[in-house]
UniProtKB/TrEMBL annotation:
Sorted UniProt keywords: Cell membrane, Disulfide bond, Glycoprotein, Immunoglobulin domain, Membrane, Repeat, Signal, Transmembrane, Transmembrane helix
Ig-like domain boundaries: 20-105
Designated name of the protein: Ig-like domain-containing protein
Domain of life: Eukaryota
Organism taxonomic ancestry: Eukaryota, Metazoa, Chordata, Craniata, Vertebrata
Protein's UniProt keywords contain Acetylation: no
Length: 367
């Protein structure tokens, strides 16, 4: 018992320096093959910095900083999966050793990526992000671009053979906006998969205006027609975002153009189909904070009929009416009567001429 007490007392005397701070300069999630730097920051009294990786028998690295520097930087030119794991650092001075820093978990991504969907959210709502993969990962990690840390959750398996994990964020606020990615890993490995496709979480109502949305040529069209949705705002907008209600795909984004007294963007859709029918809204954002949006425009309903508009048929002869038929019959009868009268006149003339000739012959015979 005396030995144990003495050992603890000596250990306490060793921690004469403040606990250093450890962090990864470019974030704790890094792609395999990329360079990165782990920084250990202590007090000005520190003479030697030591970086230790959990599970390793030897220090990962030691460094003597140049005075008056109070930090050491441990650079990795090209990260591999062996670099993944938990790191701590501590430092030494003539007075003794410091306490170890908090743990930094370095995530090295490799291949295969679980996907996520894309939301536009109102402040105050609760949000659940789901990482899902057809590979049986035991755990998932959610990482926000530019964040200092990531969140881990154990994976669950569905009857369809998918593995997934849910991450609940809420109530959401302006600080929730950003780009997120998720990663998968197996329990027996320190290597993480490559990231999923990025997910932009956009928070509405962070700019004090609403753009307007209109449809050209009309909000009711036929399949195969071309449609343009026009977003406009009198206030400065760098990017317009067009969102379809209930759609899983990422909203469309276009840089705005300054026209006359407003900013606008035209979202063109060629040869539309009935699948594009639905309710649309547009939002505006500024480059200084691209994930914080304006209020949404009034909704616009686009209706696309399933049939393709037929081309115009060639002009056809109008169908005759009863009156026109009677008129035609009257004209035809008059023509027939006229022909008959002319025939009778011709016959009469011929008969008269024949009778006159016979009289002349008879009169000559009598003489």
């Amino acid at each position: 018992m005396t030995f144990t007490f003495t050992a603890l007392l000596c250990l306490g005397e060793m921690w004469t320096l403040h606990k250093p701070i450890i962090k990864a300069e470019t974030g704790s999630v890094v792609t395999s093959g990329s360079p990165m730097t782990i920084c250990c920051e202590g007090s000005l009294d520190a003479e030697i910095y030591v970086l230790h990786k959990e599970g390793s028998q030897k220090p990962w690295g030691t460094q003597t900083p140049e005075k008056p520097e109070n930090k050491a930087k441990f650079s990795i030119p090209s990260v591999t999966k062996q670099h993944g794991g938990q790191y701590r650092c501590y430092c030494y001075s003539s007075a003794g050793w410091s306490e170890r820093s908090d743990t930094l978990e370095l995530v090295v991504t490799g291949e295969q990526a679980p996907p996520m969907t894309n939301p536009i959210l109102d402040p105050g709502k609760s949000l659940t992000l789901q990482c899902c993969s057809d590979i049986n990962y035991d755990r998932f990690a959610l990482y926000k671009l530019g964040g200092a840390d990531f969140t881990q959750n154990g994976g669950q398996w569905t009857q369809s053979g998918l593995s997934l994990a849910n991450f609940t964020l809420g109530p959401v606020s302006s600080s929730t906006g950003g780009q997120y990615r998720c990663y998968g890993a197996h329990n027996l490995s320190s290597e993480w998969s490559a990231s999923s496709d990025p997910l932009d979480i956009l928070i509405t109502g962070q700019r004090p205006f609403s753009p307007s949305l209109s449809v050209k040529p009309n909000s009711t069209v036929h399949s195969g027609d071309n449609v343009t949705l026009l977003c406009q705002s009198p206030y400065k907008v760098d990017t317009f975002i067009l969102s379809k209600e209930g759609a899983a795909q990422q909203p469309q984004q276009l840089k705005s153009k300054s026209e006359a007294w407003d900013f606008q963007a035209e979202f063109s859709m060629s040869a539309v189909t009935s699948a594009l029918s639905g309710t649309y809204r547009c939002y505006g954002s500024q480059d200084s904070s691209p994930y914080l949006l304006s209020y949404g425009s009034d909704p616009v309903e686009l209706m696309v009929s399933g049939s393709i508009r037929a081309s115009s048929p060639p002009p056809s002869r109008p169908m005759p009416t009863a009156a026109s038929e009677n008129q035609d019959h009257t004209v035809e009868n008059l023509i027939r009567m006229g022909m008959a009268v002319m025939i009778l006149i011709v016959i009469g003339i011929l008969v008269f001429e024949g009778w006159g000739s016979q009289r002349q012959i008879h009169h000559a015979a009598e003489k």
